[in-house]
Amino acid sequence: MTPSNAAIFQSQSCTPESLRTLAGYLERALDEGESVVLMRIGTHVRSVYVGDPSSALEDLRDEGVVPAEQADEMLALTRIGLNRITADDQQYRFLRSVRYIADRQVVVFTPT
Asked: pTM, whole model, 2 decimals?
């Protein structure tokens, strides 16, 4: 198994802001036993939801937006399948997958 790009940051003391942001959403998802859903809504921002990705969009809890550049970095530092990252000395393990919700492709981060 090839480590994710985020593995290069595990030995560094500075966690990229994008991974800190993702970690915050993963914490919320863990608390609720749900997943983080990242959806493109335009060219400059991405919507973030927490909930069951097999549900309808209106059943997901809207957690706000992140800048597109930050979302793109989250994707660059993770990969489809099992991921392990360290954000500010806290380790996170999650599955990244892709699916469709409301006819839109979304990225799903599911804590394991």
From this structure: 0.87
The pLDDT tens digits for 17-65 are: 999 999 999 999 999 999 999 999 889 999 999 999 999 999 999 999 9
Count how many Cα atoms sit within 13 Å of the Cα of residue 3 in the half-sphere of its side chain: 9
Q: Domains plus CATH for the chain?
A: 5-111 (3.30.450)
Q: Which token pair is 53?
A: 């990705």
Q: How far apart are CA 51 and CA 23, in angstroms?
A: 16
Backbone dihedral region for residue 6 (phi beyond 0: left; psi -120 to 50: alpha; all else: beta):
alpha
Phi, psi of 79 (to 5 degrees): -145, 165
